[in-house]
Structure formats: C-alpha cells, structure tokens
Amino acid sequence: MTPTTLGPVSAFVEEHFRHFNAAVVRRASEAWIRLLERGGRMFLAMAGAMSTAELGRSLAEMIRRDKIHAICCTGANLEEDLFNLVGHREYVQLPEYRDLTPADELELMRRGLNRVTDVCIPERVMMLVHDRLLPRWQAAEKTGQRRFPHEFVYDLLRSGELESLYQADPRHSWLLAAAQKDLPLFVPGWEDSSLGNLFVARVADGTLHDVQIIRNGLEAMLELLRWYEETSARHPIGFFQIGGGIPGDFAICAVPLLRQDLKRTHVPLWAYFCQISDSTTSYGSYSGAVPNEKITWGKLGPDTPRFVIESDATVIAPLIFARVLGW
C-alpha cells in the first residue's frame, strides 16, 4: 500500500513513524499485514485494563474484519467490556486522579465506585451483569452442564436480553463482536475478576452448590492446544501481546507444550511476535524479557519476526489496529 491509498491515521504512521520506538510500531504493523496477506492468523493476548480503556473502539472492528482470530484475556478484560456496554453513562471520570488522597479513595469506595486509574466502575453495573448471569449458572448446575466463563457471557449477549440496557455504542464492544463471530476465547485465572469473585460468593452462600460448573484453566489449555494444532496445520499464526501476566504466558506456552511435552515436532512455532509493554527490559521479569528469550523455550524461532514496543498500550494498540485496518 502506498500512503495515497491509506486512511489519515495509517498515512500519518507511514510518514512520521520512522525511527526508534515509532519505527517498531510501523514495522510491527506492516509485518502483521504481511502475515494476513499470506493467509496467516493473529492471536491476541490481552492483559491490563484494556476494556475499561475502551480498546473495543478499534478492537471490535479488528474482530469483525477478521484481523484477529482468537483472544486470550484476563477475567477483568472479559467482564469490563460488558460492564462498559451496559453502564457507560454511569461511569465516573476522574481526570485529576493523581491528586486523590486516601480519604478521597475511601469516599469513592463508600459511593460504590471502583477506580481503574482515571475512571470508576459502579458496583451497581457489576451486579446488573451478575443478576443476569446467575440464572444461567443455576440452569447449568441443574442440568449438570459445564462451560467456560466466556460461554455464559456469549450466551447472555446473543440472547438480546441486554440490548435495551446498552449505554455504549454496541459497535464499540469487542466482546459483542467476538460473541457474534463465536471467536475462540481463552480466559485463564477467571477467579481473579469481579464476576469470578461473585460466582464464588454464590457457592459460599449456598445459592450455587458446585464450582465445577465453570470449566477451569487446565481445560482451557486443552482447548487452546486443539485450536492451535488445527489452525496451524493450515495457517501461520502470529502472537500479539498487550502487557504481560497470565494471558501472555498461558497462551504462548501452547507451542512448547505441543512440541516438547507432546513431542509433536510437526507443529509450527508462532510465526510472528509483538509485545506492547511499559515494563522495560529487566532481569527476572517476564514482562521485561526480550523476545529472544522465548527462542530458548521453544516458543519462537530465530527467524520469527519479533517486536517489542515499550510504551502505553492505550496509545499504541489503537495506532497499530488502525494501520492494520488501513484507517
């Protein structure tokens, strides 16, 4: 593509992102485009508070236009996109959050507001979603059905039950786009989320009787292995990682598990790797480990295109998505 065929954001990146960290943004975007042009697939690992940062404004279109083909995310990112969809107008913006005192924070808590940097999620919105998931959890328990956390959420979104409650533009919900596509989704460590905590609370108070209706992280890894082996047999698969934590480390381990632990040497390595992180290169930090280290673990090869962008993902990810979309 030449700059004259690109949208304004893409043309700006092509013209001005020439060196240093900016050049990595451009090169990573171009490598993503080339991967897709040769029939590749892209896997997104998403940590951080990206849903509350409203990354769905660009991520949803990436999903709709088949630029992303599977996602591994935290439980918080799973639920917070849904919270935003049904509660956006009730969120409290705190542009001066750096000036808050401990007493200010306590007052927010007393008002039922949970702060995520410069915005607060009302507890009422969390309970609104909980109250509509609880009957689904109870029905699953009654019938002996076991499902992954996101499958209950997909079912809720597809039912149309929430449509009259939408407070944000549904085109900006990446989770709704994923549900409509039936996008493969993997959510390890779901218990580290508000809905995960509420689910456990319902078991603890006797409303539910068995945690086993939620399929766990080990089962999610089995599903990921099946997806990767089937997909990589037909397409090279790239790995785009936002932040560190469990979504990145859990998902990228699928390849060495297949190749080293199961001895399936025909399984290809990840065909592309890019990480956006504000954790600079350091000693002993997973998020600060350079991609070359992943070669020693059998995750990437010496010829795999590798990129590290040391910056704020809320700034960089939308730019890369825009470039891949040609915006």
From TrEMBL:
Belongs to the deoxyhypusine synthase family. It holds the Pfam family DS. Keywords: NAD. InterPro entries: Deoxyhypusine_synthase, Deoxyhypusine_synthase_sf, DHS-like_NAD/FAD-binding_dom. The keyword NAD applies. GO terms for cellular component: cytoplasm. This is Deoxyhypusine synthase. One of its GO terms (molecular function) is deoxyhypusine synthase activity.
